[in-house]
């Protein structure tokens, strides 16, 4: 165990072993181009398709000076694509970008891909339907 611990310490502190973090894209590229690079190079997509709402958001964030923020894609965890039914390493699909939201304080933009909930763990049916109230008590 001590040998393993020493190896971990060496690997995480040795300057020769350190690697600088770098994005897949140049953060100064336009928003749409950054999304397209991620979709093609990471997910194997043929391209992206932006909704009108997403196009409006690109224009808004660019005008507000947020175009240089990094991108964090919000998509299903069940597939490399936007579609949970596409398993393995799918190819030949186009990623629909339905909206783009900004977390300016955290420093990133997050496109919403396909149909997905943005709050994980919430059911599609609210639990208040199952609450039984007795008016007499």
UniProtKB/TrEMBL annotation:
Q: What class of enzyme is it?
A: ligase
Q: What is its EC number?
A: 6.3.4.3
Q: Name one GO molecular function term.
A: formate-tetrahydrofolate ligase activity
Q: In which pathway does it act?
A: One-carbon metabolism; tetrahydrofolate interconversion
Q: What is this protein called?
A: formate--tetrahydrofolate ligase
Entry annotated with the keyword NADP: no
Q: Which keywords belong to this entry?
A: ATP-binding, Ligase, Nucleotide-binding, One-carbon metabolism
One Pfam family, short name: FTHFS
Originating species: Cetraspora pellucida
Q: Which GO terms describe its biological process?
A: one-carbon metabolic process
